[in-house]
Amino acid sequence: MNWKQKKKYETLLAREQGFVKKVWGTCHTVCLAYPNVYRIGMANLGFQTVYKIINETPSFLCERVFLPAGDDAEFVAGAVEMVSLENQKPIGDFDILAFSVSFENDYPSILKILDLGGIPLKAEDRTSRNPLVIGGGISLTLNPEPLADFFDVFILGEAEEILPQFARLFADAVRRGFDRKALLSALQKQIPGLYVPSLYAPRYLPDGKIQDIVPQEEGLPWRIQVSPIKNINAFCTTEVVSSADSEMSEMFLVEVNRGCPHLCRFCAAGFVYAPPRFRSHEEIISAIDRGLMVKNKIGLVGTAVSDHPDLVKICQYIVDHNAQAGIGSLRVDQIDEKIVDILKAGGIETIVLAPEAGSQRLRDLLRKGITEDDILCATRLLIKKEMSNLRLYFMVGLPTETDEDIDAIIDLAKKIQHTALGHTEGKRKFRRITLSINQFIPKPRTPLQWCALADVQDVGKKIKKIANAFRQDKQINVIADVPKWNYVQALLSLGDRRVGDILMTVHRLNGNWMRAFKDVNINPDFYVYRQKDLNEVLPWDIIEVGVSKRHLIHEYEKGLGLRPKAEG
After folding, report:
1. C-alpha to C-alpha distance for 107 and 35, rounded to whole angstroms
2. What's the Cα-to-Cα distance from 423 to each of 136, 391, 416, rounded to whole Å?
3. Model confidence pLDDT, tens digit, residues 39-95
4. Alpha-carbon gap, residue 541 to 164, rounded angstroms
5. Average pLDDT over residues 415-428
6. CB–CB of 195/543 below 8 Å?
7. Per-residue pLDDT for 2 more than 80?
8. 533 pLDDT more than 60
9. Most exposed of 201, 333, 513, 521 (fewest Cβ within 10 Å)?
10. The domain that contains 167 carries what CATH number?
11. Which of 197, 225, 253 is at the close of a domain?
């Protein structure tokens, strides 16, 4: 590596607290990769957790690597190596290259990192001289198939119990001299929740649907069983490395729960991480105490933070220590004076709420469990407490959506604004409502996984209609994603193994998706715009996460007003 690159990495490390730098030559080596830039990766609690687990495993060393920033011309030109942050070792020299993957839109960056590291993109082309390429994270647990050709191993579900098992078996296989094929077979047969895609082959029907996915060796499980960790108090999930250069750098992150009791039909968290589990008050306070030694703001992380039975006590503890409590969003129907007073005392001025839909009909379809009265009551309370900035999340392109449902978003936003202005009483000017408008994308393992993505051009028109309704209103700001990237995300969320050919072509064409769609003899609309049959084999059916397909069908039919089937 050159001097400039080395200096850059040393500067990053100097601005960190908590990183681990072990001596090479005595450990099995793991390079943990995040397929996005440093500031994004270092704000990911899952990524940090894996870093801690591996470095705490005897005889293992873990270092980090990130996607080069877009303005890093030397990487673009291929003038420098892809090396780890801690010891600046080439990523191809590690025993294992482990990707932590949370978002489908980062998939192309996985291929870019492999390529920059001189590692063959396809698993079938690698030899014993190459690292074992493994991957985990929520998006891979939902559906790993689009990346199946590029990974040797997927580690699915929650990492705290399965990663140490993987490390022990890997170390034992190396000691016994296993070759790559024998290692992969042993991993698949001995560790539940682990998936070696090369040991399974999909077969297709003439219409392009999947007939089945078949094990290629005797003794392999027909389905990959992913089980939740029963006692999350048995380990601590907090920020491990504090970086001044990460997103949310001012906040120390503490996980308070996993799973969600509300089971909204569009959200995978409640179904993949079932049942909902909450860390004890004592464990959280202990983690907060460690965090307060580093930072003055504690970010409470989880899929149902509002539901923690001791949330008020936890937030009060933070405020009593002259610190701020940060919460991603609050459930509308769980906002009360106590929690608002505590957040305000901690300096919080913006509250995030997620009505998701403007009409009650669509909120019921989504199983949100809230009403317009709940939303307006929450608004009145927040304004009464001088919380002068609101951020509201809505989705468009929902199943059965009509023009009236889009009008309902506009009407509800105006009602919220009117309610807010009506309760300022001239004492303090209400500042702003931000409407974050996102396209609904069907996700695997949810009751709406069979739905087609709404046409992105139609969705763009709906977003424009909402934006135009508030163009002259200085108090309501509308923000939205670019609809065309929602199409790509849906393709990577819902695709099967053949989508890997599209990813390869996108990589070869330096990110030109439109050209790749033309060059590859695969119709992406088949995955994105097609309503799936309830009885067809879906790409992710090879994996079982504990919630039965029959239950998902029951919820799908109930949500769409069809005759519900008995659950059985």
Report:
1. 7
2. 48, 18, 11
3. 999 999 999 999 999 999 999 999 999 999 875 655 554 556 899 999 999 999 999
4. 26
5. 76
6. yes
7. no
8. yes
9. 521
10. 3.40.50.280
11. 225
Quick one: three-class SS letters along 170-207?
A: HHHHHHCCCCHHHHHHHHHHHCCCEECHHHEEEEECCC
Q: Helices 311-320 and 337-345 sit at what angle, rounded to 10 degrees?
A: 20
- Using the predicted structure, report yes or no on whether residue 564 has a pLDDT greater than 70: no
CA separation, residue 411 to residues 95, 360, 380, 414, 416 (Å): 57, 12, 17, 5, 9
CA separation, residue 367 to residues 81, 108, 374, 376 (Å)? 49, 33, 15, 19
Name residue 326's beta-bridge partners: 299
Q: List, for residues 352-387, the tens digit of each pLDDT value.
A: 999 999 999 999 999 999 999 999 999 999 988 888
Q: Is 391 helix (H, G, I), strand (E, B) or coil?
A: strand
Tokens of 169: 């078996």
Domain CATH number, residue 380: 3.80.30.20
Cα–Cα dist 132/94, whole Å = 9
Q: What angle, rounded to 10 degrees, do the helices at 456-469 and 403-422 form?
A: 30
Structure tokens at 550: 């029959």
- As given in the structure block, the two tokens for residue 298 are 């504690």
Residue 307 near residue 334 (C-beta atoms within 8 A): yes
Cα 373 off chain centre by: 31
CA 344-347-352 angle, to 5 degrees, is 65
Using alpha carbons, select from 274, 270, 567 the residue that is nearest to residue 446: 270
- The number of folded domains in the chain is 2
**Contacting residues for 75 by C-beta, under 8 A, at least 6 apart:** 68, 82, 116
